[in-house]
Amino acid sequence: MHPRTLEVLTMIDAGDGHPVSDVLLAQGRRVPDTHCAGLPDLLDYRGLDTPFPFTLTLPQRCTEHPPPAHLGVRGGGCALAPR
Q: Is the overall model pTM greater than 0.85, yes or no?
């Protein structure tokens, strides 16, 4: 996940008073620089004006299921998929 995505996810409550971004940050690994597409050079996020100067890597199941699970808490009817 890119920094701006994490910024947006701070605005969604996970149902326990914490933002969804906190749930994902607890499960992922912070990578300050990474390749993007076919670019030969690393993209360095450390200089960005953001509370998340990195990309967050985590299993795809973590990016697909927590937001719908938290929408279920808000009456959306979604459930966390089994791991």
A: no
